[in-house]
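Appendix B, example 12.
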Amino acid sequence: MGNCGTREESAVIAAHAQVQQLQTFQPAGRNSALEKKHNRTFSDTSDASACRNIEDAKNISIYTNVIAFTLFELETITKSFRSDYVLGEGGFGTVYKGYIDENVRVGLKSLPVAVKVLNKDGLQGHREWLTEVNFLGQLRHPNLVKLIGYCCEDDHRLLVYEFMFRGSLENHLFRKTAAPLSWATRMMIALGAAKGLAFLHNVERPVIYRDFKTSNILLDSDYTAKLSDFGLAKAGPQGDETHVSTRVMGTYGYAAPEYVMTGHLTARSDVYSFGVVLLELLTGRKSVDKTRPAKEQSLVDWARPKLTDKRKLLQIIDPRLEAQFSVRAAHKACSLAYYCLSQNPKARPLMSDVVETLEPLLGSSRSTANEGLSVVPISHGLLPDYGMHHRRLTPNVAVGCRASPNAKCSPGAAVPACRVR
C-alpha cells in the first residue's frame, strides 16, 4: 500500500465522507447465506464498493471494546502517516505510531497505539486482515496484544493495537546495538509467550497460531511478552479430527517439519515453533543464519544434539549471559527445548505443560537476580519494530494469503466463537 499521507487533501476529505463501518456480528448459521449472497473475488473486496453495502454501525463495534475507526481519524493520529512515525515494516505492510484521545473522538481514553496499514501490493491481504479482527476481537489475554480497533474503508484495511514500548523480542536478541537480555528476563519472556500460546490452545475450539517467532513476540515496558500478528492463525481440529489440513504457511526455521511435509496442522506445530524460540533465547542465535558455517546455519540442527549432553550443553548458552544464571535452570530449559523440538509431534509437551515447567525456572531466575544479577536495562534509543524480516512459507501454486472468493468486510464470518474451557 502506498503511503496514505501522500494523497491530496481533497481525496482524504472525499474518503472521509464515504466512511462505512463494519456490520454487526452475525450468528454462525447466517454466515453461509451471507457468503453466498456476497460471493466476491479478492479484487472485488479491494474495490471501493466492498464495504459500501455494509450496515452503517458508527460508534458500534462488533466485539466488546473494539473501535471502528475512520481513515480520517487514523490519518490524524499518525500525522498523515508521516515517515518519522514508522515503527516497522513487514509482510502485512507498514506500522506507524500514533496517539488517540478525545481530540480524535469524544470519549476515547488517551492512549499510545500502533497502526498497521495493509500493503495492497504485499503478500498478505484482506483475508489475513479479517482473521486478525476476528480472532483478536474475541480473544483477550494478558499475553496477547490488544486490538484497539480497525478501519475498513474503501480499499483501505488498517488495524490499531496497543503500543508495545520495547518492540519485538527479535530486536532485543539480535540487534547489535541492544544490551543483552538477562537470564531472568529471557525466562520471563519465554513464560509469557508460553502462556499466550497455552491460552489459544485451550479455548473451546483451539486456535493454532501458526507463525510463532521472535518478531511476533512484542514486549511491553516491563518486558511482558505478548503475541501479535494473527493473520495466519487457524481454528484447530474439533471432535474426532486429529488435524487441520491447510496450505503450508509460516516462516522458515520455525515451522514444524511434519506440517511442512504434509500440511497437517495441529497445536503441537506451535509447540515446535516455541521450542525454536526458546532455543533462540538460550543461545542468542537466529533460527536460520546464513552468515555462519554450513553446519551451524540451522539452529535446530546445530543445537538439538547438544541439548541432552551436559558436557556440551553449557557451550551453546549465549556467551553474553556471562555465566550469570543457574546451571540447573539452564539444564531444565534446554531439556524443555529438546522435547518441544521432537520430530514426533505426539512426543512434544502441551503448552500448558510448558508453562508449568517454566514457572519454577522463573522463580529461580528471580532468586538469582536478587543475589546481584539484576536485569540488564535496554537501550532507550531503540524504536519498537513491528516488522517481520523472515521469509514466509507460501504454497507453490499461488500466493497463499490472498482473500478467498467469499471474503468480505464482515468480521465473524470465518472464525467460530472462542470460549475458554
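The two ends are 40 Å apart (CA to CA). The chain is about 35% helix and 15% strand.
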